[in-house]
Amino acid sequence: MTDFRALKSGAAVRRASLLCGGLFMALGAMSLVEALRIKDAWQGARLMPVALGVTLVALGIGHLVPSMAGRAAVPAWPDASARRRVALMFGVLALYVGGMPYLGFLLATALFVLVLLRALGSYSWPVTLALTGAIAIASYVIFVHWLAMPVPSGFLGA
Amino acid sequence: METLGFLLHGFAQALTLQNLLFALIGSVLGTLVGVLPGIGPTSGIAILLPLTGFLQPAPAIIMLAAIYYGAMYGGSTTAILVNIPGEVASVVTTLDGYQMARQGRAGPALAIAAISSFVAGTLGLVGLTFFAPPLADMALRIGPPEYFGLVVLSFSVVVSLSGASLLKGLSAASLGALVALVGLDPMSGVRRFAFGSSDLLAGIDFIAVIIGLFAITEVLIGVEESVTAVSMAALGKLMPRWDELRACLGTMVRATGVGFFLGLLPGCTPGAISFVSYDVEKRWSRTPERFGHGAIEGVAAPEGANNATTSGGFVPLFALGLPATPALAVLLSGLMIYGLQPGPLLFEKQPGFVWTVIASMYIGNVMLLILNLPLVGLWARLVRVPYAVMAPLILIFSVLGAFSVRNSFFDVGMALVFGGVGYAMIKLGYPTAPLVLALILTPMLESALRQSLAMAHGSPLILVTRPIALILILAGLALTAWSLLARRRR
Predict the structure, then answer these.
(1) How many of the other CB atoms lie within 10 Å of CB of B259?
(2) H helix intervals, B36-56
(3) pLDDT tens track for B398-454
(4) Which of B320-324, B343-347, B467-471 has the highest mean pLDDT?
(5) ipTM score for this prediction
């Protein structure tokens, strides 16, 4: 009887190996091109890029050799809903970082905490708002007020 | 006997109320500096140095030194509890410490980190007390070819950190080496992998990479798995069991040896040394398969080594005026501000000052143990904080930690990128520890190799004609072969 699960995991390993092998070969090629660009003696600034380029290309080829890559573990990609949660978390984090210069540390942090508390927790609105205020204000007092970290102040001036 | 007399006199001075107070302030600040990611002992000492202007030299240096070794104690706390290394030297502590926390054993992990830090830090101070001048002389004989040998030896650790697939471990290490090369070449000033970006020209900061790989990745995995807290397991006993303490005694002694002797060498950072110590312990163990899954020795070894390293680093600093780490370089400038010229004559001309500072370090280590052990219960309870609250806190700390390095959003962006890279690596079965190790070692490897070649007018034979260098390289190759054979047998 055909073991479809084994076939599926075998295909996933091969796909991941191909992808990673290609990526490492590309990085190796980039390193070698960079070494060619550098005008210096062989034992100078180009020594490591050359050595590393060759190593990366060899490792990339290694990924494509089934006997070497075949021992690799099956990629443990999450299911669709977990993938959505991870993407949402990463997106919210990116928005927090990207929005901080415009909104300022305090407001951006408060919004960030509010979104995460709603997305990850199951608190009532009053508790969510109280936690949001406590975390945002405590971080502001410790890092900006006491440690004088020059974070953006945004249009609110905080 | 003369040394003992000087030390006792130092204790008499260090035990005055003023010196005790500044040792305590330094220890507390050092612990805080260690706990907060991104704010290391170097920046901690640099920030406080101008503020010590009103003090006498002894209390000022006592406080600054306490910040340095106190940071090594504090760095383990977040590494164990939430997988964020507070210090570069605590990266290895995450491997087993965080696993222990997830198993509900945060208390014993935190306690063994404090105890091992105390034991190794104190044993290292004994070395500093009795052997400083001869050891400093020895360390001075280590040239670039010998450094190259040392780095080759350290790189052999990659094999044992590789996990299930050697190919993936080596690939991760190569990725780390590539990241380390980005920016201006420190020897010739040539641009490498900058692609016209002024931000990349300054290089990719180590802290941003660590924050991304460990903290952000960990949150992404936590969200994926819908965890409700770092650990929901019962907290159990807060202190390690007697049999664990007994087992860790040898670990602490070995960690002291590794940390202290490698710490004598300028350029050998606590980050690299803690990796070596972890590897030594894994090889020594009869059950190496426990490492990476919550082995208590895996916490004791790096934490002991990084504290012994701080003691070792004071040997070349006091005896030769050579700082082994960037934090000690800032401390050296502090000594010079006070008109103290570290070097062979410091022990003769300023014995009162030197021995007071050394004695204060013994006292500071005791203070740190007393400060840290009672807090174990409090810290350990943090793993039960709901993840909905913990995740934003970790991420705010991560963003601020990355930002604080150079006050730049580029570093925060890099932390985000490496958060994504770390997540993909874990999902694809690539270990992240070799990447971090290569990131630490590659600049050392490159400068040692190029300086060696320059010394020999381009001939690589210099690496095999100097006996110490040759022995170290052969030892590195032998350890690699041993690890490969052990893997094959498994």
Answers:
(1) 36
(2) 41-48
(3) 898 888 878 899 999 999 999 999 999 999 889 998 998 899 889 989 999 999 999
(4) B467-471
(5) 0.90
Residue A64 in this model has a pLDDT that exceeds 90: no
Residues 6+ apart with CB under 8 A from A47: B446, B449, B450, B453
Res. B140: pLDDT tops 90: no
Please tell me the distance in Å from B317's CA to the nearest CA on chain A: 29
Number of Cβ within 10 Å of residue B385's Cβ equals 15
Pick from A59, A83, A101: which is nearest to B174 by CB? A59
CA distances from B318 to A44, B116, B352 (A): 34, 25, 13
> Distance (Å, rounded) from C-alpha B28 to C-alpha B35?
11
Cβ–Cβ gap A52/B187 under 8 Å: no
Residues 6+ apart with CB under 8 A from B286: none
For residue B123, what are the β-bridge partners?
A: none
- Alpha-carbon distance of B23 to B183, in angstroms, equals 39
CA B357 – CA B58 distance, rounded (Å)? 7
What are the two backbone dihedrals, phi and then psi, of residue B183, each rounded to the nearest 5 degrees?
A: 115, -160
User: A112 and B458: CB-CB below 8 Å?
Assistant: no
- Cα angle B70, B94, B247 (rounded to 5 degrees) comes to 80
pTM for the predicted model, two decimal places: 0.82
Q: What separation, in Å, do the N-terminal and C-terminal C-alpha atoms of chain B show? A: 52
Per-domain residue ranges of chain A: 4-69, 80-146
Q: What is the C-alpha to C-alpha distance for residues A90 and B195, in angstroms, rounded to an integer? A: 26
Q: Check if the beta carbon of residue B412 is closer than 8 Å to that of residue B402.
A: yes
User: Residue B322 is which amino acid?
Assistant: L
B187, B412, B429 ranked by CB distance to A75: nearest: B429
Is-contact B31 B157, C-beta < 8 A?
A: no
